[in-house]
């Protein structure tokens, strides 16, 4: 549960402008608007939200051939391409391939051709261009430590890859 910006009680209401600040009542929202400085912060957050929405709807920039998309390093014999996504063309050097954000390609449902649905959920699984996290089905391969009780009872079609298998129950498929 979220807490009120003014009195720190449970806050079921969210500001309709910035979509961030939470309040327990319209009274606390008015106090924060007039006395707490939310009026200015709300307008700034709205501009950020608009910018993020525009960025989200733009196609990612095309990677430069022969260069790391994460850090723009030119590939050489010593600084080689360590990761190359067959779907979006994202390429990484050895340093960027193990980085939590630069090592994530532009694909929304996979990373370098590996579908997220087949992986254990991690907080950094998502689109490297927009930052949108993967929230789809999960049916990780063996070796991730799930028990039989962690899976749904009946197999069904995965919403990501289309494979018909038993999925991890949603409560166990949250990123960690």
Describe this protein's structure.
The chain is an alpha+beta fold and 176 residues long. It has 3 domains: 13-57, no CATH class; 60-106, no CATH class; 116-176, no CATH class. Helix content is 19%, strand content 9%. It is built from 3 helices and 8 strands. The chain has helices at 26-34, 38-57, 94-97; strands at 13-14, 22-23, 83-84, 91-92, 110-111, 114-115, 156-157, 164-165. The strands form 4 sheets. Strands 1-2 form a two-stranded antiparallel sheet. A two-stranded antiparallel sheet has the order 3-4. It has a two-stranded antiparallel ribbon with strand order 5-6. This is MYND-type domain-containing protein. One of its GO terms (molecular function) is zinc ion binding. Residues 4-42 form the MYND-type domain.
Mean pLDDT: 88
Distance between the termini: 19 Å
Q: Choose one word for the global shape.
A: flat
Low-confidence segments, ≥5 residues, pLDDT <50? none
Strand order of the largest sheet: 1-2
What Rg, in angstroms, do the CA atoms define?
A: 21 Å
Largest β-sheet summary: 2 strands, antiparallel
Q: How much helical structure, as a percent, in the residues? A: 10-25%
InterPro entries: Znf_MYND
Keywords: Metal-binding, Zinc, Zinc-finger
Organism: Phlebiopsis gigantea (strain 11061_1 CR5-6)
Pfam families: zf-MYND (PF01753)
């Amino acid at each position: 549960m979220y807490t009120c910006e003014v009195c720190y009680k449970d806050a079921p209401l969210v500001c309709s402008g910035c979509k961030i600040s939470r309040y327990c009542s319209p009274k606390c929202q008015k106090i924060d608007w007039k006395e707490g400085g939310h009026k200015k912060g709300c307008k700034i957050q709205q501009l950020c939200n608009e910018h993020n929405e525009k960025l989200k709807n733009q196609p990612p920039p095309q990677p430069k051939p022969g260069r790391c998309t994460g850090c723009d390093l030119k590939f050489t014999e010593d600084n080689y391409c360590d990761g190359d996504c067959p779907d979006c063309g994202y390429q990484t050097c050895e340093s960027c391939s193990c980085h939590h954000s630069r090592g994530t390609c532009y694909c929304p449902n996979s990373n370098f051709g590996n579908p997220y649905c087949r992986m254990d959920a991690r907080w950094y699984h998502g689109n490297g261009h927009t930052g949108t996290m993967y929230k789809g089905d999960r049916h990780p391969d063996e070796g991730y430590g799930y028990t039989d009780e962690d899976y749904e009872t009946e197999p069904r079609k995965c919403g990501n890859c289309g494979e018909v298998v038993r999925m991890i129950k949603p409560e166990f498929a949250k990123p960690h």
